[in-house]
Amino acid sequence: MSMPGFPGKKVCVLGLGISGEASAIFLAAKGFEVWVSDAGASQPVLERLSKLRALGIQGEAGAHSLDRILGSDWAVISPGIPPFAPITQEIRKRGLPVFSEIEVAGRFFDSRRVLAVTGTC
């Protein structure tokens, strides 16, 4: 069973920065089966992964398991992962649908008006 606007219930969130963590929690709360993956294994990433696991969200840090990622119905890619990154290129080559964090969030708005502020440091 899929939710309107998405190709299925199994989603992979790539990137465990602050926004990746928030995306995983949000999607799990909406009933999606979420897998998170981050190639890095810094202390903040490991802490976020531990927090997500405590919430019942599974994932990995320090590598990307391509088979596990491709077992998802679609993926959310952190804006911190460049489009030319090997993992990004591979999942697009394999045809896995990819959505940005802001696109996913936008699909849950039912308002006609949205004020959004974006940017980088």
Number of strands: 5
**Beta fraction of the residues?**
15-25%
So what's the overall shape? globular
* Helical coverage, percent range: 25-40%
Quick check: average pLDDT?
90
Per DSSP, the total helix count is 5
Strand order of the largest sheet: 3-2-1-4-5
Which radius of gyration do the C-alpha atoms yield?
A: 14 Å
Order of helices and strands: EHEHEHEHEH
User: How far is it from the N-terminal to the C-terminal residue, by CA?
Assistant: 39 Å
What class would the helix/strand composition place it in? alpha/beta
The parts where pLDDT drops under 50 for at least 5 residues are none
Largest sheet: number of strands, sense, barrel closure: 5 strands, parallel
Helices and strands, with pairings:
Blueprint: E1 10-14, H1 18-29, E2 33-38, H2 43-54, E3 58-61, H3 66-70, E4 74-77, H4 86-93, E5 98-100, H5 101-106
Parallel strand pairs: 1-2, 1-4, 2-3, 4-5
Question: Overview of this structure, please?
Answer:
Helix content is 36%, strand content 18%. It has 121 residues and is α/β, with parallel strands linked by helices. The protein has a 5-stranded parallel beta sheet, sandwiched between helices. Strand 4, helix 4 and strand 5 (98-100) form a beta-alpha-beta unit.
